[in-house]
Structures are given as C-alpha cells and as structure tokens.
Amino acid sequence: MSSNVGGHRFVLGLYAALVAVAGVAGYLTGTFVSGLSAPRFLFLVPFPPTPAGFAAYGALTIALVLGVPLALVVYVSAGLDDAA
Questions:
Q1: Residues in CB range of 9: below 8 A, 6 or more apart
Q2: Which of 3, 8, 27, 37 could form a disulfide with 55 if both were Cys (CB 3.0 to 4.6 A apart)?
Q3: pLDDT tens for residues 49-58?
Q4: Number of Cβ within a 10 Å radius of residue 58
Q5: DSSP collapsed to 3 states, the chain
Q6: Residue 40, strand partner residues
Q7: 41: which strand partners?
Q8: From CA 79, how far away is CA 61, in angstroms rounded?
Q9: Mind listing the pLDDT tens digit for each residue in 7-34?
Q10: CA 74/CA 52 separation, integer angstroms
Q11: Structural domain containing residue 10
C-alpha cells in the first residue's frame, strides 16, 4: 500500500493557502473600502475596522468554516481505515 502523506500534505497546504488568501482579501478590503463597520467574529468578538482587523477576521472565518469539516473528514476517514 502507498502512503497518503503526500495527499495529507497537499490538503494542509491548500488549507493554509486558502486561509492566507482570505487574510489578504480582508486586508485589501480594509485598505481600499471606506466606511466599513467593525466585523464581529461569530457575532461575538468585535474586531477593529482596520486592515489588520479585517485580515484577522477573514482568515479566522475561513479557517473555521473550512477547518471544522476538514477535521470531521479526517476523523471519519481514520475510523474507516481502522475498520477495513
């Protein structure tokens, strides 16, 4: 059997790249769009309406939205590998 280390590394790299792109998009939004109100992460944690605040908000939001399903897939696939 072949190892899936290459596949795991690819998925984690893609995940990190998508989180980074969301952070850059948030930074650019905070830089070039005026009159923005402060974002609230999970409707609870307010971030400042600055480029850094929007970058953190974007990166954290995408990390959570993509990270939770990815973690569930890893958990389920580990259980399926053990059953087979």
A1: none
A2: 27
A3: 999 999 999 9
A4: 25
A5: CCCCHHHHHHHHHHHHHHHHHHHHHHHHHHHHCCCCCCCEECCCEECCCCHHHHHHHHHHHHHHHHHHHHHHHHHHHHHHHHHC
A6: 46
A7: 45
A8: 28
A9: 788 889 999 999 999 999 999 999 999 9
A10: 31
A11: 5-83
